[in-house]
Amino acid sequence: MLDIKWIRDNADALDAALAKRGAPAQAADLIALDEKRRSLVQSLQEMQSRRNSASKEIGQAMAAKDTAKAEALKAEMAKLKDALPAAEEEERKVSAELTDILSRIPNIPLDDVPVGKDEHDNVVKRVIGSKPGWNHKALEHYEIGEALGYMDFASAAKIAGARFTVLKGQLARLERALGQFMLDVHTTEHGYTEVQPPLLVRDDAMYGTGQLPKFAEDLFRTTDGRWLIPTAEVSLTNMVREDIIDLEKLPLRFTALTPSFRSEAGSAGRDTRGMLRQHQFMKCELVSITDAESSIAEHERMTECAENVLKKLGLHFRTMTLCSGDMGFGARKTYDIEVWLPGQDTYREISSCSVCGDFQGRRMNARYRGADGKTLNFVHTLNGSGIAVGRALIAVMENYLEEDGSITVPDVLLPYMGGIKRIEKAS
Is-contact 324 113, C-beta < 8 A? Predict the structure, then answer.
């Protein structure tokens, strides 16, 4: 969430930032609403102050036996008593309206973010590796998986409906191996602390990371009012909610391997075949909590940590700097890592790493003590996929496909595969 004080002082900067994101100007309306709120607060304070002073004056008038003055003051007190509830309600209503509007305004892009409308305006940052050089026909993951007998979409549809997958046998083990491998890399090589967080969270947690109120339709809600996490970012980031952290304890780095759940409300007709876009999927998440001065460098570091997973898997990928119109709601800058999929003959996103500044810290009221030990500042937060396990499985299947339809297991996964070096057709 943006600071209304900052908006009052930087109205043009806000509207310019919104324009970069393809959103309409809002500064003037916000400032006008804040002026109304401030006027109501001042009026309310004056009424409360007058009530307090009138109460004392009544006592003084009674002591002086000035009955007329005392009665006049009592009449004034009665009017104030009647007027205060309505004034308080109006102030609450306007404050709530301002907070709601502020909660729906996206974050301010950093100055070096390329200005653009959509994914076509994203910029290549670097390209790692090269496309597979084999001569046999490339296949999509669902063709490979079904031919091997380990990927069952019909059973998934019977059990749960569309956008679910049943993995069996060696493919199920390969997906599990990928997740465990990612956790081990991030905890032993990159310094992240492994966390097993809740998959169900309250409204406040979703609000803190920006999923609510704007993106409720993209989420699944349970009958008791909790939400299924769309990413472990929600649980990991909210671990510092309403905390005050000593500067020397920063940065905090967390990782978690969890299921994630998304309604995919805006993706009707997209990626309906296979397991590219699912309601339920596994993801290894990375979250960092930093001070203001460290967050930009941490963004570069986090992205390199995610890239390292793909390097170890021997997969060709490119890292893109997202343009202003393609960034997520809470991000100030985002790198998307796109892996090469031979079966689709294209790059597909497999990780997205974002720096959010104090946008989420303000929503969570998560702060840290400055170097003086006294000043309190909102934490800066970062999140990224390290990486999406299901999409990594797709990438391994398509890039390690052999001519006979089997899949060679990447060397780094062999310790997790119980002696299986090649995934072959189920007998």
Answer: yes
Q: Take residue 286 and report the two structure tokens written for it.
A: 């990375």
Q: What are the pLDDT digits (tens) for 112-166?
A: 999 999 999 999 999 999 999 888 999 999 999 999 999 999 999 999 999 999 9
CA–CA gap between residue 76 and residue 205 (Å, rounded):
45
Residue 371: which of 225, 214, 246, 194 has the closest Cα?
246
3-state secondary structure of 185: helix
Residues 6+ apart with CB under 8 A from 383: 209, 231, 233, 236, 237, 285, 286, 287, 288, 353, 354, 356
Asked if 4-103 and 119-423 have one fold, the answer is no
Which CATH class name applies to 4-103?
mainly alpha
Q: What is the pLDDT of residues 374-390, one digit of tens each?
A: 999 999 999 999 999 99
Q: Would you identify the CATH topology of the domain 119-423?
A: BirA Bifunctional Protein; domain 2 (3.30.930)
**pLDDT tens digit string along 332-350?**
999 999 999 999 999 999 9
Q: Would you name the residues annotated as active-site residues?
A: 262, 277, 349, 352, 391
pTM above 0.70, yes or no: yes
- The domains of the chain are located at 4-103, 119-423
Cα–Cα distance, 306 to 313 (Å, whole number): 11
> What are the beta bridge partners of residue 354?
334, 383
